[in-house]
């Protein structure tokens, strides 16, 4: 059977077949999404599950809330497809700042499912403070979750992918705040941490490419979530921040789904060490 795809398949005389959309399938692959209890993480988890993956959402609450369970049930009730996609959502209580525990969480996912293919290191926190007043403790806390936690997550998945010889995909959630300084916002620790995430993705990508593991990052712009509802709650601020991108609005979490599936799946097999901005054009200004 010919393994040619795309134009090579068309020229090889293979029977005509639609293969381009199926590149985005992650059927029967196993994924970890940190910060997967709500917001961007839960949207990533649903996108992956719809595309056929078994997704473990790791987050701080000891039990998932009613909304998370509703999304889990929604996935369970998805209609069958011709490709027999069988997505599933699972919940794991965990803290990304605990390196040993993160290693153990991914080991136990592999024990249960036999594999780990996709890792979305997405958990993060936002904290605002004037730069000259930043306490050592507050600065450390942001970096512990947004930088160390992202590393421990990527390590936990990467170690298992290496052990099992899996051509895995690791995606780190960075931010436009790693590329620019958000005008009018005093987010020194957050901005610094997200720049570190961008560089971490490049460094991991270069070291892990010979092992067949890809690492990329996604940089969302302003997205409606609990983080931005809490962090930008001042009256009129949302309008002011919306005007900072050419599209003049905040994005929705579901508008990240295309980038998530592209990076997680075989649609991006020659892509590593890169960052995908989903920001309404904010960094283009
Ligand atoms: N919302 C935005 O506008 C925006 C923009 C750019 C980047 N981001 C990034 O996207 C990611 C998700 O953001 P969101 O908007 O969904 O925020 P959110 O606050 O709604 O969700 C973050 C999730 O991470 C979890 N979390 C926090 N600390 C954790 C820890 N130590 N261990 C495990 N889980 C932990 C939280 O419990 C929460 O469920 C973050 O990394 C954030 O920095 C968000």
Automatic annotation (TrEMBL):
Gene3D superfamilies: NAD(P)-binding Rossmann-like Domain. Keywords: NADP, Oxidoreductase. It comes from Mycena albidolilacea. Belongs to the short-chain dehydrogenases/reductases (SDR) family. The lineage of its organism: Eukaryota, Fungi, Dikarya, Basidiomycota, Agaricomycotina. Transmembrane segments: none annotated. GO terms for molecular function: oxidoreductase activity, acting on NAD(P)H, oxygen as acceptor; oxidoreductase activity, acting on the CH-OH group of donors, NAD or NADP as acceptor. Pfam families: adh_short_C2 (PF13561). InterPro entries: NAD(P)-bd_dom_sf, Sc_DH/Rdtase_CS, SDR_fam. This is Uncharacterized protein.
């Amino acid at each position: 059977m010919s393994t040619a795809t795309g134009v090579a398949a068309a020229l090889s005389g293979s029977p005509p077949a639609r293969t381009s959309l199926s590149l985005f399938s992650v059927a029967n692959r196993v994924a970890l999404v940190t910060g997967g209890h709500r917001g961007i993480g839960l949207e990533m988890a649903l996108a992956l599950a719809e595309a056929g993956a078994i997704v473990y959402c790791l987050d701080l609450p000891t039990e998932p809330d009613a909304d998370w369970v509703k999304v889990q049930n929604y996935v369970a009730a998805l209609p069958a497809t011709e490709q027999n996609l069988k997505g599933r959502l699972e919940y794991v209580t965990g803290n990304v700042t605990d390196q040993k525990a993160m290693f153990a969480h991914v080991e136990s996912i592999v024990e249960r499912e036999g594999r780990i293919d996709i890792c979305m290191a997405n958990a993060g926190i936002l904290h605002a403070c004037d730069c000259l007043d930043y306490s050592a403790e507050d600065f450390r806390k942001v970096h512990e979750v947004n930088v160390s936690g992202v590393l421990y997550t990527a390590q936990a998945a990467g170690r298992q992918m290496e052990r099992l010889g899996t051509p895995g995909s690791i995606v780190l959630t960075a931010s436009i705040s790693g590329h620019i300084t958000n005008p009018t916002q005093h987010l020194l620790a957050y901005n610094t941490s997200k720049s570190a995430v961008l560089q971490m993705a490049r460094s991991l990508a270069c070291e892990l490419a010979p092992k067949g593991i890809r690492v990329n990052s996604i940089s969302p712009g302003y997205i409606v979530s609990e983080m931005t509802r809490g962090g930008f709650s001042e009256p009129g601020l949302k309008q002011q921040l919306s005007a900072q991108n050419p599209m003049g609005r905040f994005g929705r979490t579901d508008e990240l789904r295309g980038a998530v599936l592209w990076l997680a799946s075989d649609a991006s097999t020659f892509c590593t060490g890169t960052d995908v901005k989903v920001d309404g054009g904010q960094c283009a200004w």
